[in-house]
Task: inverse folding
């Protein structure tokens, strides 16, 4: 039996990849686009693509469903990259189509929540990475992690859990109009006892 973790060395068209989430943080996408542009030579770009293969699950329709690196995939698409290498981490080609999303949900390979943090039907997921919408709180969560507000964690969609926490504490207008101030407020909330249940929380151990 073939090892499902072997990468497919044949490039896959970026626009044929199916997202398993509805949103990304566009600030993060812009940052990844900037880093891509800093790799001027084709050799450096090829090395970057080789190091960041996109993890996918094969669906019963034969499509590749992206289960991580949505931000990078969207950034590369926006930069005009047409094809990308993928790494198959799961094969669900034998699953009946009407059961597919239930299995994906159960395995924590899908996150069908919109930019307001509300769960939607799987049919509302975008058909390509070009359809991913901006969730400014996802950008805030990503920046917060880089600033040491919380630790990187293996929990699936951990930064979305943080985004949803921040959404309940800070106004969207604040995040969109004054990101630096939102970061300041976010850091304080991230270290509070209110956030103790979140993955990667590294706030105060006591009230001393």
Result:
């Amino acid at each position: 039996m073939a090892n499902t973790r072997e990468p497919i060395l044949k490039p896959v068209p970026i626009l044929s990849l199916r997202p398993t989430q509805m949103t990304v943080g566009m600030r993060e996408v812009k940052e990844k686009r900037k880093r891509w542009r800093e790799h001027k030579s084709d050799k450096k770009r090829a090395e970057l693509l080789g190091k960041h293969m996109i993890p996918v699950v094969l669906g019963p329709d034969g499509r590749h469903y992206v289960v991580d690196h949505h931000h990078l995939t969207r950034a590369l698409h926006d930069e005009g990259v047409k094809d990308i290498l993928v790494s198959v981490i799961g094969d669900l080609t034998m699953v009946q189509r009407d059961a597919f999303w239930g299995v994906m949900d159960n395995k924590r390979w899908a996150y069908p929540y919109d930019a307001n943090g509300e769960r939607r039907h799987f049919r509302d997921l975008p058909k390509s990475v070009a359809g991913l919408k901006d969730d400014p709180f996802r950008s805030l969560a990503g920046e917060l992690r880089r600033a040491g507000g919380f630790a990187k964690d293996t929990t699936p969609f951990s930064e979305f859990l943080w985004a949803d926490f921040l959404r309940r504490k800070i106004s969207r207008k604040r995040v969109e109009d004054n990101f630096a101030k939102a970061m300041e407020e976010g850091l304080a909330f991230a270290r509070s006892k209110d956030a103790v249940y979140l993955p990667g929380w590294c706030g105060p151990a006591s009230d001393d």
User: Anything to note?
Assistant: The two ends are 57 Å apart (CA to CA). Strands lie at 7-13, 23-24, 54-58, 64-66, 83-91, 133-134. Residues 7-134 form a domain with the Conserved hypothetical protein from pyrococcus furiosus pfu- 392566-001, ParB domain fold (CATH 3.90.1530.10). The chain has a mean pLDDT of 91.
